[in-house]
Amino acid sequence: MQCEFMEFESLGRTGEKVPKIGLGTWKMGTYPEEELKAIRKAVEVGMRLIDTAEMYANESLVGEAIRGYARDSFFLETKVSPSHLKRDDLIRACKGSLKRLGLKTIDLYMVHWPNPKVDIAETMAAMEYLADKGMIRHIGVSNFDAEELEAAVHAMKRHEIVSNQVEYSILVRGIEGDGTMSYCRKNKITVIAYSPLARGAIFAANQAALVKELQKSAAGHGKTPAQVALNWIIAHKGVIAIPKASQPSHVVENAGASGWRLSPGEIGRIDDSAVMVDALARRTKPAMGTVMPLVSLYTKMNEIKNRRIKRIIKRGNKRTGS
Ligand code: NAP
Fold this sequence. Notes:
Structural class: alpha/beta
CATH topology: TIM Barrel
Bound molecules: NADP nicotinamide-adenine-dinucleotide phosphate
Oligomer: single chain
Shape: globular
């Protein structure tokens, strides 16, 4: 399935092309019927890269959404929780994700967060084992800064790290200043920008000047402010964006962020108008001590939430006879 206006980016050094705009699914799982439509719409409009995670507790929803599509019509990425980075835990976690997704192979499997309590060499060796076994096609990381990336890259023996999923938007630009972006560029590691709409903050009242610039560029291109904000991200070489949209209309709108380009002048004016929060973002990067109890809680909720999603989907399927 192709989409004429979707732009593509090479994934790491693999030569494989992934769309510049994919779909995020964090917080999906509450309204499965609408969310199923949104995920399917993404595949249909060419945003065929779907991002989920063990921790999101919605892999069964994503699995149901992609069921029935030809295997090459979507690119599925998921992440192992930082509480499962020891070898046996990681292998078990991957098998769980494969089962919930209903897949034989995950296209891109990522370490969700670094966990300093587990030796990165053990984690990356387990990731390589999964790739050797064909359970995953590509290996990536998430929330790794340049130093953490360097350690992970050096731990690899037979495969490469193809991507780093990090927060990046007009407002949150920590990766530009702390060396992460330049490390990725130099080493041909694709940056997967998460929270590309800053979770809606780009449209907030305290960003009046930015909103005005986004509106001005949007009017000039016959686009919307959200499309402009996403175009700002994908204008960067080696960077793709994964906006979350549980409303199918938002999915269609976001796909339209691709296939055209803001001018350098417009990008400059957008940059000048934004009240950035990157310093804040770096400061709030949570310490593992604070995150781990939350991670355990999410992991416990995972099965309960996935079971609930399955029940709702089953009821819906009975109703529609599918
Ligand atoms: P986001 O994509 O910046 O923002 C999502 C919000 O924007 C949702 O409320 C969505 O509404 C709204 N939205 C989407 N398209 C819109 C449009 N065209 N116009 C107006 N509003 C629009 O935030 P995010 O969910 O934090 O980040 C995206 C994805 O990145 C996540 O879903 C997840 O897959 C990934 N992520 C990864 C990590 C990590 O640690 N690796 C962390 C955070 C996020 P509706 O849902 O109502 O459509």
